[in-house]
């Protein structure tokens, strides 16, 4: 099972968008974010910024805390978040 928070967030974002019956283009128009950025978020290749989460949540008729709760509930530990050794003191750039 994939516990990468970027992928989990992207899957959740796509689910919420589709629940509203919106295309990615509609979401980008409503949120003001670039279509390529939203696409990257949904594919799990973009590390979405907190300010953009706070922008997306109300756009999708939610709040940022509830927007993240399904993701945080599926991530059991820090070692699941990042594919780096547990003893790493810094993260690669």
UniProtKB/TrEMBL annotation:
Pfam families: HTH_3. It comes from Rhodanobacter glycinis. It comes from the Bacteria. This is Helix-turn-helix transcriptional regulator. Signal peptide: none annotated. Residues 13-67 form the HTH cro/C1-type domain. InterPro entries: Cro/C1-type_HTH, Lambda_DNA-bd_dom_sf. One of its GO terms (molecular function) is DNA binding.
